[in-house]
Specification:
The protein contains 8 helices and no strands. The chain has about 200 residues and is mostly helical.
Length: about 200
């Protein structure tokens, strides 16, 4: 093999290696690639940790959105607008009872959900899983989550029963005004996030 042939072969090999490197880097950044998978895994863990923390603290996390968005009043918001709604002492007392009920029961149910979810994870992590055991645990989790959501939704139903029709109509007006007042703040927050990401 003469010198020219050796040189041409070396150049061709270098070109092939150079063209393969971007493809490999791109593949690593795809959903199936190791780099992206690691990032997604960390993001999922952080999101799950946040959900577990909220469950254990008894937060609603939008579980009563179906009620709230359709005009069924939430006890916390009713109490915030007690003066504007002209609540009686009896209505205030009943509203506080509803708040206590949710604050007492929701963390208990939330902790049970978290414990069951962790058992499901451990089952797969340890490789000790079969369809029957998995289905049984999934049904347990679904039932616990249903009880938790029912707790939040029922509070709205019971709160509506405490108020008069006129008070519920006023509540809707107040909540609509609250939403309008928060929109500029949300837009400002979105603009700040956009500015920080541009930098």
């Amino acid at each position: 093999m003469n010198t020219k042939t050796i040189w041409a072969s070396a150049c061709l090999a270098a070109l092939l290696v150079a063209s393969a490197m971007p493809a490999a880097a791109q593949h690593a950044g795809q959903p199936g690639g190791q780099g992206q998978a690691g990032h997604q895994g960390r993001g999922h863990e952080a999101m799950q940790a946040r959900e577990f923390r909220n469950l254990q603290q008894g937060r609603g996390m939008g579980m009563a959105r179906a009620a709230e968005t359709n005009g069924y009043p939430g006890p916390m918001h009713v109490l915030e607008h007690a003066e504007a709604l002209e609540l009686t002492d009896g209505q205030i007392e009943r509203t506080r009872e509803l708040i206590v009920r949710v604050k007492t029961r929701a963390p208990e149910l939330g902790k049970q959900v978290v414990d069951a979810e962790k058992r499901l994870q451990a089952m797969f992590a340890e490789g000790d899983v079969n369809a029957a055991t998995m289905d049984s645990l999934l049904l347990e989790i679904a039932e616990l989550r249903a009880h938790l959501r029912s707790l939040h939704l029922t509070a709205h139903l019971d709160q509506a029963a405490v108020l008069t029709e006129a008070q519920i109509a006023k509540y809707k007006e107040l909540r609509s005004a609250d939403g309008e007042a928060r929109r500029p703040m949300r837009r400002m927050g979105e603009m700040k996030r956009a500015d920080s990401s541009d930098g």
